[in-house]
Amino acid sequence: MGSAILVAFTVLAYASFALASDPSPLQDFCVAIKDTKDGVFVNGKFCKDAKLATANDFFFSGLRKPGNTSNQLGSMVTPANVDQIPGLNTLGISLVRIDYAPYGLNPPHTHPRATEALAVLEGTLSVGFVTSNPDNRLFTKVLYPGDVFVFPEGLIHFQFNIGKTKAVAFAGLSSQNPGVIPIAKSVFGSNPPISDDVLAKAFQIDKKMVDYLQAQFWTNN
Question: Where on this chain does oxalate bind (predicted)?
Fold first, then answer.
């Protein structure tokens, strides 16, 4: 399948989200205040006067460039959300490009505010997601160029490049600000750290192992 067809296929996948909107908060929390001088606008950003909008407000060239995968995970996610494309504000959609080195991993994580549809452009990815309690069922698939896989909103999911060459994927997400919670970093790299008593009991490991994991450098992927 030619690259142009793959790109068109990916765009169609993104377009499926265009009718969606954000039914829930676009931030982690919103603390009520009485004095509006210290307040912020929630569920989006302040809007520019439509008469002052330009084509650049709806444009972003950052997904042309491969991400730097020279890190311990061998992957890099390049976002194209409302922070990069102001025109996405209130439209309920965003994109990412994900680059993978050979055997690179986009580690288990969740998007608290978005479903994700991922399309592979290059390489071979092993992907999957896990359902919520009590089943904790794993849905997994090996993807090839042109394949698409959907990760439901809020569920833990991952992608692993099982090939000896680099891989590239694009994904559409059903929120202008989907958020991302990397599981390992959130648990073992929180600031301040979660008590090692809590983590030792939760994971059924000794405190020395907790201390070791908390001492690691956790990337932002």
Answer: 106, 111, 116
